[in-house]
Amino acid sequence: MAKLILSMDGLVLKEIVLDKERLTIGRKPHNDIQIDNLAISGEHAVVVTILADSFLEDLNSTNGTLVNGQPVKKHFLRNNDVIELGKYKLKYMSDQQVTATAGETEQSAVVRAAPAKQAAELQLEPTDIGVRSNVGVSSRPTAVPPAAIQLLNGPNAGKELALQKTLTTLGKPGTQVAVIARRPHGYFITHVEGGTFPVVNGRQLDAQAHALGDHDVIEIAGIKMEFFLKA
């Protein structure tokens, strides 16, 4: 199982096993990894782990987040990646990782703020984030039928997004972000960022992954969309 090793100035402070889907990092006490330092934002970053994959998301922190010396907003973690938060470092360690083919890249659907008095719109954006898989675990499950989401409101109402990749990110950065994971036994939605959790069929979710059913209605950052399976 993957883990993070927290250190400062070369001194190891603790090891954290990534045994939950959403692990928060920040200065405030409610975080899973609390770093009581003024250089760290109250809610600085989050690590989301789905199956064998983990990705890091900076939560619009004041001083930013680095991975291997480079500033990042969202980053799929690879073995021996070093996350830097001020003077603190978190080393990501995972066994038997391999890189998927170039075709196995993540899809992102980002709800961007529209001009004044206009609704937010859903846009597809390419990312430089690769999807990885562990040995013996397929990064593109074939046991589940293809699925898609269709926008129900806003200027792009009626537009469809096929859920072809392992992970599809939805939401408005800085406001509300969630990820839909395609797993061997179905599709699951997980909250990633924001103080408000996604709503499915009128019910607000919690921090745990939620299995999606055919024709479920999802609401994220004010945009409603319908999840459906394709025959």
TrEMBL record:
Domain of life the protein comes from: Bacteria
Residue ranges occupied by any FHA domain in the UniProt entry: 23-72
Pfam families the record matches: FHA
Stored InterPro entries: Cell_Proc_Reg/RNA_Proc, FHA_dom, SMAD_FHA_dom_sf
PANTHER family xrefs: NUCLEAR INHIBITOR OF PROTEIN PHOSPHATASE-1
Protein name: FHA domain-containing protein
Organism expressing this protein natively: Azonexus hydrophilus
Organism classification: Bacteria, Pseudomonadati, Pseudomonadota, Betaproteobacteria, Rhodocyclales
